[in-house]
Amino acid sequence: MKKISLAALTLTTLLAACGGQPGTMPQVSTAPQASTAPALSQSPLSIDPAQIVTTKAGETYVRNQLVVNLRGRSAEALAADLGGQVLDRIPELDVALIGLPAGKDARSEGVRLMREGQVRYAAAQLVQRREAPVKTGQLGEQAVKQVFDQLPQYALDANHMNAQPAWDAGYTGKGVKVAVIDDPADVSHPDLRPNWAGKAFDPATNTTYTKVQDWIDWLDRIDGKLDQKVNGSIDHGTAVASTISSAKDGKGIVGVAPDSKFLPAAIFQPGFVGDYLVARSVIWSVNQGAQVLNNSWGGLGYSPLIKQAMDYALERNVTVVVSAGNSYREEWRNPAQLPGVIASAALDINNEKSGFSTYGRHISVAAPGVDVLLASPLFINEDGTRKSGYTADGGSGYQLISGTSFSGPYTAGTAALILGAKPDLDPYQVRRLMEETADASVGSNAAGFDRETGHGLIRLDKLAARLKAGNMPEKGGAARVKVEIQTPGGYVPGILADAVLEGDGADGAVYGVQTDADGYANFVSIAPGTYTLRVATPDLTLTGGNPNERDSYVGKITVTSGSVLSTVVPLRVVLTKGAVNLNPVDPYEPNDKMEQAAPIKYGDRTNVAYIFGKPRDLDFFSFMGKAGDKIQADVHARATIGGSLDSFLVLRDSAGKKLAFNDDANAQDSSLTHTLPADGTYYLEVSSCTILCASDGDDPAKGQDDDSPFNKYVLELQQLK
Fold it and tell me: What's the pLDDT band for 377 if we cut at 50, 70, 90?
């Protein structure tokens, strides 16, 4: 291997909240295949970019793909009722992915199915996009103070995680499999090949690869020739895998758990990635014997599918590690918000929180994540052979890289060290061991927990001493909450309620979930103790509406060590508001034609109205204007009041002639300004982009159906000076 100089390294950065996406329909077998498979573009799980919708809260979902927990119901029968088609199934979760016909919105269809009690949950598939790279500084002098294997790795030295004492004590992750749910890692890399577990997974085609060359050939098909550049769509997963499992063989770098084996599951492929591929990868990883799952990805929103997949792992004693995210702010990100997972924040070379690292009360521990030296994919020579090791001609072999994407796998590797020594520990015990042996002086609270770094920097020397001493934390526990809403007709399940557990004290852990169709919120593998329980229904970013339509509850709940979800008694919470209305009444109907237009005048804001009740609803409002009046009309819809309406607005004169129109002026809400040409009556036409965008508002027949009870809007008309 060629000797490396730090100056030759390429500084490459990717975020923890990686993402990707693409749509069609045939069906895929649920039995994994063991040879060559088609590319993602041929998969029924691809996503049509035209079907991607962004909500008021910034969540991104697929309008025509519905994820359903069937609760024993026939997937084909349900798809037929919806006029759609079954795209795929995950039998372990009793989940199906259903492609919907044009005009149906997965979010509103999902709520309807839940409200009717037909399924355990139904939701649109969430998707992720890759974020912009994190910009960081150069590697500091501390990096060369200690060398592991051949190349300098500051993250593992005595000033940081201090791995050598743990390795010397025999804690190397031997016998532990770690799943890398990420990019399709380059298993041929000389630092990774010795510790590849012998299987790699493409969830888009449900294919398991067992030969290095077959996997590399597949990488080349989906990514193009690797000798063209270091491509982000495989770069990230290679770096993540090397953080955990790089072999300690005197060459290149070494992973924090150098005797662990890794299983790559490739969720990030060209285009977009949806939570269905993630869930399928989680199930595959658990079924292959993974004891730790690393998830260096994330985004906004709540996914009941990801929650169920993570619970599948946790309930089988699999430790789940997630990156906190790189949003630079305090917030919850999916899946870092979920109960039972270990959320990892990123530190810089000075053991201070990185500027980009997402923070909050859900953070568990912190690890290095700025300018860490990790593996990068290898190039292919013109003759088809693969170069080995580092070359200075473009980043082949190794890279400096930054993000909570890499503090996460340092944490996952630590979990592997623990489980190699104590394989019977549950996921909470693994988490708590890290927290109790962390360096609490790191962060803003030298005495203990803080929101920026959790319980502090992982210290493997202290962890090794604790493992040798043998006194382990108590086991985790479980909790269930049953939410009901009292209505004039009786009690109904409180679906889509937000349920949050807050541990007592400044360092009390926080977990958040959403209720299912039966009103249950489940918390798996969490810290024992007393929590404040907060419940509120429903999520207005989904249904739209005003805050006063929500009801809330605050109380206490106790979690017992060793309790499991199947036997714990649920706590019943009764609310009086928040039942989802699937048959709203539009106060302005009928106003589907100009001659039926509802009156509006300057300075008015309408009550909440709906594009609902027919496949291609149009709403007309009339006002009087004078020549020279400069008017502004605004449709407040998905971006401002929530709900599902991507509005479209048209201004017409008294003869029906189109004077102006607008689709998106403010994050998919519509707004237009216009100077009126004459005295007279004018008309504002409100509808959905799905119905009118194809014809710029002229011909609804050229569009698609859009009929959702969450197509809410408020129309405002002003005269500008």
Answer: confident
The closest alpha carbon to 203, from 182, 224, 186, belongs to 182
Average pLDDT over residues 96-120: 90
State the fold for domain 594-720: Jelly Rolls (2.60.120)
Which CATH superfamily hosts domain 6-13+132-421?
Answer: Peptidase S8/S53 domain (3.40.50.200)
Q: If you count DSSP H runs as helices and E runs as strands, how many of each does the chain have, helices first?
A: 13, 35
At residue 440's C-alpha, the angle toward residues 166 and 154, to 5°, is 50
Report the first-to-last Cα separation within the chain, whole angstroms. Answer: 73
pLDDT score, position 129: 60
- Measured distance CA(434)–CA(411) in Å, rounded: 9
Counted residue by residue, the chain has a size of: 721
* Integer Cα distance of 441 and 366 in angstroms: 12
Cβ-Cβ contacts under 8 Å for 77 (sequence gap 6 or more): none
CA atoms within 13 A on the CB side of 427: 30
Cα–Cα distance between 632 and 674 in angstroms, integer?
7
Joined together, the tokens standing for residue 167 give 């390795």
Structural contact between residues 679 and 636, judged by C-beta atoms closer than 8 angstroms: no
pLDDT at 56: 65
Q: Residue 386 — very low, low, confident or very high, per pLDDT cuts 50/70/90? A: low
Of 713, 574, 705, the C-alpha closest to 109 is 705
In contact, 120 and 515? CB cutoff 8 Å: no
User: CA 395, CA 13: separation in Å to the nearest integer?
Assistant: 13
Query: Which CATH number fits the domain 42-128, given the four candidates 3.30.70, 3.30.420, 3.30.450, 3.40.1360?
Result: 3.30.70
CA distance 634 to 718: 9
Domain ranges, ordered by start, for the chain: 6-13+132-421, 42-128, 477-575, 594-720
Q: What is the pLDDT of residue 666?
A: 61
Question: pLDDT above 90 covers what percent of the chain?
Answer: 56
> Apex CA 144: angle with CA 183 and CA 326, to 5°?
35
Three-state SS for 518-586 is CCEEEEEEECCEEEEEEEEECCHHHHCCCHHHCEEEEEEEEECCCCCCCCCCCEEEEECCCCCCCCCCC
Q: What is the dihedral of CA 694, 695, 700, 702, to 10 degrees?
A: -60
Q: How confident is the model at residue 380 (pLDDT cuts 50, 70, 90)?
A: low
Q: In this structure, are residues 626 and 679 in contact, taking their beta carbons and an 8 Å threshold? A: yes
Query: Tokens 């993540």 map to which residue?
Result: 240
CB–CB of 335/311 below 8 Å? no
Q: Which two tokens stand for residue 425?
A: 């520990």
| Position 617 pLDDT exceeds 90 | yes
Share in percent of the chain as helix, strand, coil (round to 5) = 20, 30, 50
pLDDT band at 27 (very low <50, low <70, confident <90, very high): very low
Domains 6-13+132-421 and 42-128 share a fold: no
Domain 477-575 sits in CATH 3.40.50.20: no
DSSP-assigned beta bridge partners for residue 160:
none
Q: Give CA–CA dist 428/319, Å, rounded.
A: 8
Query: What local confidence, expressed as pLDDT, does residue 53 receive?
Result: 81
Q: What is the pLDDT of residues 469-524, one digit of tens each?
A: 999 999 999 999 999 999 888 998 999 899 999 988 766 778 999 999 999 999 99
> What is the pLDDT at residue 232?
43
Taking residues 698-713, report their average pLDDT: 88
List the catalytic residues.
182, 236, 405
pLDDT at site 130: 54
